[in-house]
Amino acid sequence: STPIAKQLASIKALGKGSDLEKAFATAALVYNNAADPEGKLSKAETKSLLRTQFGGFIQGQENKPKYKEIISALDEESENKIDFEDFMVLLVSLTLMSDLLQEIKNVKTTK
Hints:
It contains 7 helices and 2 strands. By secondary structure, it is mostly helical. Helices cover 62% and strands 4% of the residues. The chain has 2 domains: 1-34; 39-110, no CATH class. The chain has a two-stranded antiparallel sheet with strand order 1-2. It is flat and about 40 Å long. This is SNTAN protein. Residues 62-97 form the EF-hand domain.
């Protein structure tokens, strides 16, 4: 499969795109590369993708009630599939509860 960076570089509209645009495009490409032909992921695939691609954000979250709720929802009714919109909501939810987010907020920018 083609590396994400190469896929990203092939999108002409992102040639002069902002960091945020590229970040969201990267998320979309990671999702699309894992999705089935209908553009959806099984809940098991979603859980696996979060572990492999979002590990820094979910590390240490195992005992938080919201994390447990999200993961148990992925374990239930595993035949149900996740679309891109639901996947992005999961990413945002996991980011907001993450210890890594606090570390990111504490990064000092120098000008």
